[in-house]
Amino acid sequence: MKRILITGALGQIGSELTLKLREIYGTDNVIATDIKKNDSETALSGPFEVLDVTDAKAMIAIAKKYKVDSIIHLAALLSATAEAKPVFAWNLNMGGLLNALETARELKAQFFTPSSIGAFGPSTPKNATPQDTIMRPTTMYGVNKVAGELLADYYYHKFGVDTRGLRFPGLISYVTMPGGGTTDYAVEIYYDAVNTGRYTSYIDKGTYMDMMYMPDALSAIVDLMEADSSKLIHRNAFNISAMSVAPDDIAASIAKYIPGFKISYDVDPVRQRIAESWPNSIDSTAAKEEWGFKIKYDLDKMTQDMIEKLRQKRQLRISG
């Protein structure tokens, strides 16, 4: 990667990935795009273009303008929001992906887009879900992700586009709040723990899902994109995870650092149903063997860092 175009750059992943890539590859070599511009560091620290990913001509024009050799396509509607707006989700998620793949084909650019544990469904093996297994999701988001994996495979085999992807678990970050995902509770719980010492979870206790701290997720993207192409068997997309946890596990970890923290439950049936259709845990062996996937943060190490960073943010907000 030398000249990188990022779509959805102001989202949960993009807002942090853009800054990380600018540190690695140079500020002017990472072009951030999103449907609108804000005053964040991501938008203001380097090249930024307003882009609707459903506009194929605009996407190709921006890519050619900056002579990009890599495209990281992050723009998408997340699971819970996609379930509420399924037709819009299909048009955005699949239309935007097709336009991004076509742009990569025309420019002969390397290509990355994330998949998700949402690509699995209730008939998928629940524990240590294999890299290669049955995938019959029951949500529009999941359908989009399975179709996206297959479409990226098609562009690799048909047109030779160097496509790569990761099946992300729930991602936890102190920088940007998520928007419309089933695993969002795993971010919200830390904010409420620091601010109020209690949290009401919309996901029921004992509901296990895979999670990962954002720094590990960002490193995984860079490591995969820099990996030797000849060693990649499962391009789109690799199972990766750092931990399999339920809300009560996160609450217990938080209580180690915030004594007296309390969790209660007010279950959202829509998001609970989505969560129960996903695996309890997935097997990341293929990612480890093919490109050296590794993590730095387990649950307690993540919790300690999240609480420390959120307390710093709160102090800055108060003093500011």
Compose a concise summary of this entry:
Helix content is 46%, strand content 15%.
Strand runs, count: 14
Reading off the top of the CATH hierarchy, the class of the largest domain is best stated as: Alpha Beta
Q: What is the overall silhouette?
A: globular
Strand order of the largest sheet: 3-2-1-4-5-7
Individual helix count:
12
CATH fold title of the largest domain: Rossmann fold
In terms of quaternary structure, the protein is single chain
Order of helices and strands: EHEHEHEHHEEHEEEHEEHEEHEHHH
Assign the CATH superfamily of the largest domain.
NAD(P)-binding Rossmann-like Domain
- Radius of gyration computed on alpha carbons: 19 Å
Describe the largest sheet: 6 strands, parallel
Q: Let me know the average pLDDT.
A: 95
Q: Give the proportion of residues in helices.
A: 40-55%
Topology:
Blueprint: E1 4-7, H1 14-25, E2 30-34, H2 41-44, E3 48-50, H3 56-66, E4 70-73, H4 79-84, H5 86-107, E5 110-112, E6 115-116, H6 140-159, E7 163-164, E8 166-168, E9 170-172, H7 185-195, E10 198-201, E11 209-213, H8 214-226, E12 238-239, E13 243-245, H9 247-257, E14 262-265, H10 269-277, H11 285-291, H12 299-319
Parallel strand pairs: 1-2, 1-4, 2-3, 4-5, 5-7, 6-8, 8-12, 9-11, 10-14
Antiparallel strand pairs: 11-13
Helix pairs in contact: 3-5, 5-6, 7-9, 7-12, 9-12
